[in-house]
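Data availability (excerpt). All sequences and predicted token strings are deposited with the supplementary files. A representative entry, Nitrate reductase molybdenum cofactor assembly chaperone, is shown inline so that the format can be inspected without opening the archive.
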Amino acid sequence: MTTVTERRRVPGGRRKKAPKSLDTSALTDDERRTVHMAASILLDYPQPQRRAQFDQVASVVAVLPQEIAADFDAFLSEATAMSQGELEAHFTSIFDQKRKCCPYLTYYSTGDTRRRGMALVGFIEAYRAAGWEVEEGELPDYLPMVLEFSARSDSPIAGQLLSSYREGIEVLRTALESFGSPYSHVVAAVCRSFPEIDAATRERYLRLVNEGPPTEMVGVTTFLGALAPFSPSGESSEGVRV
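Structure token line:
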């Protein structure tokens, strides 16, 4: 796949360079599961217990196709060079404070609008349809959670969820790259695990890159309460986060 060099007009008369495309990788089902499980660990908040798993991740991803292994290695090398405090501070400054680096997938299609509440309910129903339940602690569209669901579930629903929010994941990758964040490498590995992006999806993705998510503020979490990481019925979330 060649790098796109077209320039697009955006509101206000400014012109933005289209984000670069990535080559996708031909993966087996097991390799795709490995990519998604590794990414779910690395994209989660890097508290000490989570960071202690990085060495295990490094050994597993080393046998993946070269371009994906290189993406993971680039992140792990940069993250290892940071102290615990530096990595946590970077995570917060990127994922909590940058609008286009939101780790919650429904934000890219609905923003903080009235429609987001229904989109979140749709995620809960999708998990339940696959035999999983949402527990307390996290919103159900949290990207590391969805990736773990994809890695651990035999249901095609997980792949359908990721495909439905492909544009948002591509926007996240592009934004992370623009900020020079090492987390861009992890999201790049995830994007390489997907089928090649089609023209219609790319057009929507470019529009989101240029315009950002909708901005109508309504505080959707007030009626949904504290939604949380899913796990199969009868298992704790610690049991499924390897």
